[in-house]
Automatic annotation (TrEMBL):
Residues of the SGNH hydrolase-type esterase domain: 59-204
Entries under InterPro entries matching the protein: Ester_Hydrolysis_Enzymes, SGNH_hydro, SGNH_hydro_sf
Highest rank taxon of the organism: Bacteria
Keyword list, A-Z: Signal
Name this protein carries in UniProt: GDSL-type esterase/lipase family protein
Coiled-coil stretches noted in the UniProt entry, renumbered to this chain: none
């Protein structure tokens, strides 16, 4: 009996420990919000990733016929989304998952191969949970603030595009090209920080993403 109790304690302890990590407070806050709002009877879209998703505050208005979960948070990297795949994606049983990751990874000097490895692992977890879930990989975006690293972004986007060819339910949303004008990043679609987008920027994103919704 003592052995069983001890093993149960270890299971609970390490099970909890696996869920702890960076950004735990942000993830808990997202869960609390949608635990109140999420209706499991409705068709759900999950948008997740870093601050470019989090700051898309009117995303619900773009998809009035669906229930939209915005589980993005600032500073998120692909490794963070992999750690919290269950909390930020799977628990909402989504029909479609839109993922924006890699932007912060590049700034943090994460290698392209590691970003793609994390992304493949995220996809595999989603598919293991429900093979019919559609996944849209949103390309890393160009920005004024990070334009010097554009070649790394382009390399990553080529990797995302290749990943989208693994399965007909995985798609690649190329927002990169839509945000350029004659091979230069548009300046009228960003906030003052040169990194995050204004409403014009999100309108461009929506025009690309809608092609993967219809």
């Amino acid at each position: 009996m003592k052995y069983i109790i001890f093993c149960t304690f270890l299971f609970l302890f390490f099970g909890h420990a696996q869920q702890s990590g960076p950004f735990q407070d942000e993830v808990i806050s997202i869960q609390k919000k949608y635990d109140r709002l999420w209706d499991p009877s409705k068709t759900t879209f999950v948008f997740t990733g870093s601050s470019s998703i989090r700051m898309w505050t009117n995303i619900n208005d773009a998809f009035p016929e669906y229930q939209v979960i915005n589980s993005g948070f600032g500073g998120s990297k692909s490794s963070d989304l992999l750690l919290y795949t269950n909390e930020l994606i799977l628990k909402y049983k989504p029909k479609k998952v839109f993922i924006y990751e890699g932007d912060n990874d590049i700034v943090a000097k994460v290698q392209t191969k590691d970003i793609l490895k994390n992304t493949r692992a995220i996809i595999d977890r989603i598919k293991a949970n429900d093979p019919k879930t559609e996944i849209i990989l949103i390309s890393a975006k160009p920005s004024i603030a990070r334009w010097r690293q554009r070649n790394k972004y382009k390399k990553l986007n080529r990797g995302f595009e290749q990943l989208s060819k693994r399965d007909y339910t995985i798609r690649y949303a190329n927002v990169w090209d839509a945000m350029l004008n004659k091979n230069k990043v548009r300046r009228d679609i960003f906030l003052r920080d040169g990194l995050h987008m204004n409403s014009k920027g999100y309108d461009l994103w929506l025009s690309v993403i809608m092609e993967h919704v219809k």
